[in-house]
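TL;DR need structure tokens for one chain.
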Amino acid sequence: MTAPTPSLYIDRPEDVAVAARALAGGAVVAAAFANFYVIVTRPDAATVRRVNLAKGRPVHQVGSITTAVGRIPGMFDWSRISPRLPIGRVRALMDALYGAGPFGFRGPAADRLPDHLTQIDSGLRTTQVIAPGLTCPSNAFFERALAETGTDHLYITSANRSRHHTGAAEEPAHWKAGALAADFAHLDDLVVLAHPDEAAARAAYPGYLTTSVTLLSFHAPEGELEEPPVLTVDRHGSLHLDDVRRAATPLGLQVRLGDTAGRRLQVRGYAGALV
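>> reply
TL;DR here they are.
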């Protein structure tokens, strides 16, 4: 089977404008994101539920958010961070990791974020912010989409069908636009905003796997009196734990794998004409 060829590209301002307007109108956008692809939509509950159903997820599964990189700190309520965890260190780590490439942070959610994009953990209302890093051209798309929707955040999820739907042990994110479009052919309003050169996009992030981002939690540091404070990797994804530690150690922070991150995410393989 020949995969469909995307007609919109992340490096073309006119294509970004088309995709952002479509998103504001309720469309589902599969967007180039660092070295792979994500699905991005408006953040309203009805649209999030529709994407959950399209992926084969439970309809009320909580979603993650994204925004342009400069807006990320505003997604969190910094007043709810443990007094044992210096805010300046966390912000510096956030700058370092998002400055290098795609990553995710989970922390106390800003009050204005809706319940369907937050979850309670360790007694705190938290949110996950997934971003592609400072240099990715998708930041321009996010800024345009935020302007079109009149919001400061968007819904984001991995570009894959859910394992609940396929029955597979794991369904890695897509890093080829044609295969992604084929997987979501049942969505008549899918817009694909593709990398102009997927091989070049992968080469731009040599230290990252082409899969969903590594996710680090900072809302509940481990250990009552342990120093340096310990942050938890909730998901071991594209960036290796050792690289996260290398960024954290000079800032006086420790990083450990959490109970849900014992196995690193797999990379999607492609066969035949899609390779």
